[in-house]
Amino acid sequence: MAKSSHRIMTANRLSDGVVVYLDAQERWVESLAAADVAETEADADSLTIRAEHAVTARLVVGPYLFPVEPDEAQAKPLSQREHIRAKGPTVGTDLPVPETGA
Amino acid sequence: MALVKHGHVVDNLWETLDGRDLETIDATTALLVGPAELKALGERLNRFGRLGVTVAPGDDVRDLLEHPERLALVVVTFPKFNDGRAFSQARLVRETTGFDGEIRATGHILRDQLTFLRRSGVDAIEVPDEDAESWAKAWDAEARRFKGYYQPAIDDHSNRASATGSSAIRRWAAPATVAAFTTGAIAIQDASCAGAWAY
Amino acid sequence: MYAYDEFDHAFVRDRANEFREQVARRLAGELTEDEFKPLRLMNGLYLQLHAYMLRVAIPYGTLSSRQMRRLAFIAGRWDRGYGHFTTRQNIQFNWPRLVDTPDILDSLAEVEMHAIQTSGNCIRNVTADPFSGAAADEIEDSRVWAEIIRQWSTLHPEFTFLPRKFKIAVTGAENDRTAVKFHDIGLRMRRNAEGKAGFEVIVGGGQGRTPIVGSTIRKFLPKQQLLAYLEAVLRTYNLLGRRDNLYKARIKILLAETGVDAFTEAVEAEFERIRDGALTLPEDEIRRIEAHFSPPFLLAEPPDPAHIEAKHAHPDLAAWCRSNIFAHRVPGHAIVTISLKPPGGIPGDATTEQMEVVADLADRYSRGEIRVTHEQNLVLADVREADLFALWRELGRAGLATANIGLISDIIACPGLDYCNLANARAIPVAQRISRHFSDPALVEEIGPITLNISGCINACGHHHAGHIGILGVDKHGEEFYQITLGGAADDDAAVGRILGPAVTYDGVVEAVECVIQTYRAIRKGDERFIDTVRRTGITPFKEALYGTR
Fold it and tell me: Which tens digits make up the pLDDT trace of B164-190?
């Protein structure tokens, strides 16, 4: 698997379990494309601190950083797992809910 | 640390050795030692009117409590709340050792475990001073939560019968809580079941 | 089936209220996630890849049509219109919101259902024979004992924080349909020399990282002493099971590390201490539970000419009868298994609509009762032969008439990386590809009885170790690979499957399975089943076929 220093902070929303990503405006968004990308270690630390605040504020649960491919117009996860978290189950009869829904 | 015993905040008068020389400690002190100390100090502990031992989750309580009549307190520990060995230890202390005193739980416990502690034979919990009152309230609230239980346990003073016929395994909770229950189920106190489990 | 009295109703409502308070405390910040997690797990609520997942208990896999309709309602109201039936006879909802779960539990309580202890380090759903009460080879209805154990184990104060989860299975038939030898405790109903029924107690079976067949520690246990014996086993495990390593905490490890004899000695000593105490089951209590499971009065009927005629006229019906019907103890009746494995479908899934259809059909054709099998299918246990044609047609309309029970497309698969936090690889799309590949009914029937199990990680929730063909998804450098095992079995000749060779790619799995099947068809003798051939020849011919020519 390719390595990358670019990372995104993700978690599940406490109230409903929905997969969310931390954006640059302190919002937890459902769209991977809108997520804040940490390019340096310092950026990543800042994301971690902000995520911990969100845990204390009971917004999200279980935050963690994951690597994404750099130099892309839209961040692409390196791992199968994050790809599925972003897109939803690949099983065909189970379609992901549109961003603005539910 | 504060003590909550049977739902009441009580003074914690117990002391540990704390590196002190045993002979310098007054005999009226309620003294709490560990299993190694209990074995090592042996007869030198006899002069203490109130003696207690703290057990670790991996200890065999039956080995430790060779002379239960000398002890007024057994403390079982929860290094983390999900290490559930203390429940079985408390149960065995009550049922097999002849120990007649207080069983206390210390360590990391959740209020959601109070019913399990009580029903395993635990009388008291050790909690931070500032939380004592809320724990006392929680002890009572949790004791009232369930109108019945599905298995015999240590704290049962309850009857055997369910409303639809006799059922020795499950039982209604103690009468004080049944009063709140309004379906008209009859609580039958069956004295013969009192001997069914050791207390 | 068991009907709640006011005791049971009160309990399940009290438990639901407790959970409502726990959720409120979590949302108010009075509980950290670390503290809340074991509490929510004790109510079957996981946090998975995309969402929370709620596992609802279906005790020993039996439910009423009313309960099935409520599950359908819950799926529609609070989820995405479907549910997943599991390898432990439960049902899972994949998308509930935490804030809705108290309402879901209240709704379940109204129909005598709950999610108590479907997860967590406690005693889980006790599974039983899905053909209970109907099969001809039955000694006694295993569900009576599963219910007795269920009650005793519910919120047991001593056994709620065990070293690890604890799974119990009960079988009351000559032929084991519950995989008793792969459970922490397996109970086999037996008759002693005097003809009295009791239990053989098997301990320390399991799958996961260290799959192993259980050991018999007690050849015969009188019925009344069942709970005392179980308590002795659980107490021994609670005190001595490892707490230092999550992956070595099951009772099977304790048994292996202590030795079966020493372990048995410890259990028997504790059992001796408590055997005549408060846990002795009184006759009237046994009878109270048995009364809920008395076999239905069914009139024996001669073979129905109209049914025979229908099978001639409809070869598909005949095929379905060959694969999906199991012999009933009463002549003129049938045990029907409804396949939740249509070609290309998600194994074990059913939509709201399908659940409602099954509930209706249960009312009309099977006394309003449904069972769930650990192979992720549904059962209507008391269908009249004369009704089979009509039933089959209605099932067909709802996409529920696939004729593949116990055949190659009756695949058992865990949710895998599409849903599960623990997974390393996907399982469902692999199952979909394989079942699409083997969709020709004639070929499927010709291949004959075979089990194929897929797990997306080493936790083995797909029970791949016990599959005649087992497939384990692994992650190699970020890519999905699949290890193939052969020769596993969950029946009376329980065995753990053996690895065939290096893992194959996601794209190579179908080809690999095809190769194994073709090899079998080439070398089988007479009407040997797949597993018989593997037992006779060993895995070498299959290994050579798959890897040898490379």
Answer: 344 568 988 875 443 333 333 333 333
**Domain residue spans of chain C:** 6-110, 142-291, 305-397, 412-548
Q: Is B7 left (phi over 0), alpha (psi -120 to 50) or beta?
A: left
- Which residues, including other chains, have CB under 8 Å from residue C308's CB and lie 6 or more apart? none
Overall domain count for chain B: 2
Q: What are phi and psi of B162, to 5 degrees?
A: -95, 170
DSSP string, C278-311: TTSPPHHHHHHHHHTTPPP-----PPPHHHHHHH
Look up the CATH number of domain C305-397: 3.90.480.20
Fold of C412-548: Sulfite Reductase Hemoprotein; domain 1 (3.30.413)
Task: Tell whether B138 and B162 lie within a shared domain.
Answer: no
- Chain C contacts in chain B segment 71-130 (CB below 8 A): 81-85, 87-89, 91-92, 95-96, 110, 112-113, 115-120
User: Under an 8 A CB cutoff, do B150 and C162 touch?
Assistant: no
Instruction: Look up the domain containing B192 and give its range.
Output: 146-199
Kindly state whether residues B33 and B84 are assigned to the same domain: yes
Average pLDDT over residues C43-53: 96
Cα–Cα dist C181/A80, whole Å: 35
What's CA B61's distance to the chain center, in Å?
Answer: 14
- Same domain (yes/no): B115, B42: yes
B165 and B107 in one domain?
no
| Total-model pTM | 0.93
pLDDT tens-digit map of C393-445: 999 999 999 999 999 999 999 999 999 999 999 999 999 999 999 999 999 99
ipTM of the complex: 0.93
pLDDT, tens digit (0-9, with 9 covering 90-100), for C215-273: 999 999 999 999 999 999 999 999 999 999 999 999 999 999 999 999 999 999 999 99
Show which subunits contact B, needing at least 3 CB pairs below 8 angstroms: C
Within 8 A of A61 by CB-CB distance, chain C residues are 33, 47
**CATH T-level fold of C6-110:** Sulfite Reductase Hemoprotein; domain 2 (3.90.480)
Q: Residues B89, B176: one domain?
A: no
**What is the phi/psi pair of residue C87, to 5°?**
-75, 5
CB C435 within 8 A of CB C409: yes
pLDDT for A82-96, tens place per residue? 999 999 999 865 433
For C133-143, the pLDDT digits (tens) are 999 999 999 99
What CATH class does C142-291 carry? alpha beta
Q: Answer yes or no: same fold for C142-291 and C412-548.
A: yes
| H-type alpha helices, C117-160 | 142-153
- List the one residue out of C374, C270, A69, C7 whose CA is nearest residue B147: C7
Restricting to C residues 112-151, those with a Cβ less than 8 Å away from any Cβ of A are none
